[in-house]
Prior knowledge:
Chain A is of the alpha/beta class.
Amino acid sequence: MSGKNIFYAQSGGVTAVINASACGVIETARSHLELGKVYAGRNGIIGALREELIDTSLESDANIAALRHTPAGAFGSCRYKLKGLDENRAEYERLLDVFKAHDIGTFLYNGGGDSQDTAHKVSQISQESDTPITCIGIPKTVDNDLPITDNCPGFGSVAKYVAVSIREAGLDVASMCESSTKVFVLEVMGRHAGWIAGAAGLAAEQEGDAPHVIVFPEITFDKAAFMAKVKDCVDKFGYCAIVVSEGAHYEDGTFLADQGTMDAFGHAQLGGVAPALANMVKEELGYKYHWAVSDYLQRSARHIASATDVEQAYAMGKAAVEFALAGKNAVMPTVVRESNSPYKWHIGEANLGDVANVEKKMPRDFITEDGFGITEKAYEYFAPLIQGEDYPPFKDGLPQYARLEKHLAEKKLPTWNE
Amino acid sequence: MSGKNIFYAQSGGVTAVINASACGVIETARSHLELGKVYAGRNGIIGALREELIDTSLESDANIAALRHTPAGAFGSCRYKLKGLDENRAEYERLLDVFKAHDIGTFLYNGGGDSQDTAHKVSQISQESDTPITCIGIPKTVDNDLPITDNCPGFGSVAKYVAVSIREAGLDVASMCESSTKVFVLEVMGRHAGWIAGAAGLAAEQEGDAPHVIVFPEITFDKAAFMAKVKDCVDKFGYCAIVVSEGAHYEDGTFLADQGTMDAFGHAQLGGVAPALANMVKEELGYKYHWAVSDYLQRSARHIASATDVEQAYAMGKAAVEFALAGKNAVMPTVVRESNSPYKWHIGEANLGDVANVEKKMPRDFITEDGFGITEKAYEYFAPLIQGEDYPPFKDGLPQYARLEKHLAEKKLPTWNE
């Protein structure tokens, strides 16, 4: 570390516990007197380019502690991917200029695969400059698709949300199916990996429990097999509760409901597979249906967060600071699972170069042979990740979330031309 | 009461707390030795017609107690409206035959306006027969649209769910709006009355908090005014979080998203106004959007139920039994509000004839002048109803809900020809 200050940024889609990682970073840095300030990027890495650095030293201890139970990205996040070094070296140089101007020697980047790629590149280019920067990744993604780490902070809470939700909605449909809705479809996130959809399977404890059918992005959608499964389920149990991943697709790769728009990373923006699938069932089998799309509700549902997830998110933030203090560079703390029952884990590390741009999908043996459920192996993997409740404080019936001051550090450089 | 047994049935769309009313009925009946058994209709009133009576005396005390924290309709509900007396007198006579065969003197009907109408008719016709039945309604509807009662069990919990959800999703959008989603639309239930949409307004404590715009069914949708409001909001706060009632409609009565299908009561089946509205915003203003449709999740979300709602639901069930014991007939217990702060209420009563088929809408002075928000008066009305948390027990990370035995009483009559 050449500078004594830390730059921390949140990146990509937020989660129920990314602020718990921020809390881990800031509280740990505050406990080390040899460290300077933690600056947080206003709206993520964009804040570094614009030299909009939130001075977290001006936030009260109580406010920082409240981050642990506050969902979404308290400092602002962004969908902004730095281009390759050859394409836009100027962006990387600007980052280094801002870091140098604010005596920043450590860059902690809290995000998914794209973000770990960026942190890796910053690390590489800074080694060639006179201001080497320690770059540590902090894992975050609801999709649970990062490699190496056993699981990813943010996932356990969305897993708990979808399992709780399908259990509750399943009871609702079961109540009504004799004379009304027989098929219910819940759409969940998971662009290419079915971890979230799979975790919904935790809700089923006995035969006949919801969810009865899970549609994974890892399994090519077979309409005939799907319809046969739904019909069989309605015949047997009177109703069918379905969980479908937004990434469910046909053999040619077409999503079941492709909106045809792209996000900033060039990924197709999805949504609407639930109504598409529900309509398909109505046409083929004639059942009355209902559908739900949780969208952001699932990833921001801090009120039903997994205590395990909160603990791990905090621990990852803490470990990132400790890694930097220990002289490590271009690495990311990971969760290493020791055992399922009792659940034991410790912190490991991965090289950023190995994490960047790799998507970890559900192993085939986590999915039942017919492709519509989870196996015992998957159950054992998922179960520990949703353990424990960690309710936020409530006031007047509503959860109380942190409201930060977000004072910006004084600018020292010319304005950045975006 | 001519017979010593009670028949209890759940009707219409279920809620997070209708089983708390069932718990109140059964626990209260068990405490009165002069009363016989409580039979519950399997799948509601259909169970009476089919002589499918669940003998609740065979359920353990623990299972009955667990109903208090179990969402949906544990005995099964139905969307089945008895026709008028002139059109189908046979159905009413069948009910009376079944009641007589099982020594049932009291009919407790747990439902909304349609159900109170049915209970009222059963009461009327039974007076003309040799087996008068005591008919007591138990209010239930997430829509909060029953008259006379200050509020309706089921509503407080869905109100809490939507307020918590839009607060959390609002923080998510606020985090991302600089470079990504700027408009978020959450669709909530409420066919003709905007109580649920309005309650979402509780989430906004300070200027700039979500939700920024509420679209009510009570206010004709004015597209130009709506777009101006959304644009103003994005300009001011960077993003706009919208809550829209499924019943939002244009001046000619067309719903913003009419699926064109009807439910058993002849009501249009709605759904999909969120994507419709989001697309409209994209076309008019060009903002990137996301949308969510909670559907059944909102009304089954027992994990985030309002403690006040649970308490009132239980109290209504208890009161219904006590009313019957006191010799009352053709009435429904109600919530009578004494004061907002501190919140005080007591149990009143309404004649079923006054409750049946009346829809209580949001008063105009609960909605701001521009039609897109709630007033202080509305806030004072809503606030007490979401107070307190009443978490269900959790095991292995998931809420544990009652699994009843549901043993049917032996049939004594010929099969009913439906």
